[in-house]
Amino acid sequence: MIYTSSILYETASDDIPYCPRKHLLRFSTLTCFTCDCYYDHPHAILLTRVAILFCCFLFRLIAIILGGMCANRFPPRAIAYVVFACISLLFAICTIVLEYRHHRRLWFYYPDGGSTLNRARRHRGFLPYSIINDQRTTSWRSSLCKRHNCQSRDFFHIIMYHSRATQFRVTNANPNQRVIGFHQTDQNCAFSISKTNFEPTEQARGLFGAGVYFATSIDHTEFKANYKGAYIIARVNLGRVYLTEDRGAQPTDRQSYDSIYFKHPNGSDEIVIFNPEFIEEWLIVVNQDYSITNGVAGVRDDIKDHFYAEVYKGCIF
Q: Which regions span the lipid bilayer (predicted)?
């Protein structure tokens, strides 16, 4: 699949007559069955491929059983055919197992290549940066999602089918609004957050005082973050929100609010959550260009990221 994808993946500029490259790719990777539900459940794409392979295995098994029932009428050659067919089942089983491992490797991805990370209850998992929307399209700031005025708030959909510039802004101060926020930090901090929780910024370091700071798009985290290497997309409950258009303004009675929403005149809005408990869940996108260290017992050993993005080209709708 690695070699097929590298030949067929990029564009349709070298289409074979009567057969666009994208169709060849989907056929060769068994992802030619597409439906709208894949946008919100992209993990189902590889599961569909596993299901197709399993159905093929069942048909082969039925054919072998029928052949075995008739083998006594044409011995010994027919018996030899049945034996060879049974041996081929082992390869079919191995293919199904490998495809399922393929699925697990992508959708249960961990930067250290393992799957036993003791993660926080609200942490949804990791995704490699190489499969986000902007890494899979050749047009700048274009979204792969074809829905008109898409209202999906699913983490995987937002990251994989919408541009980094896509914003999720707040227009009013209604209480208990649940919004999507973006935070960028280095991979070591992200790795720590995945196992514990967010820690509020100290009073002296934050423009709006102590709290956890979020932008309203991935792009805006680039000039707001002090550390880089991992993007965090989170669903936050604003609770009692203090809405302001004044830079650095804070409520006089801070205890009466749970968050601040700053409406920036240039559109780069900012969210400040006072209590990390209002951060309901989050997903971490890891940029493999940076290294990550575990920091266990004061030892900072490099954790190598074994994810090979080329393998998954064409496996995502």
A: 46-66, 78-98
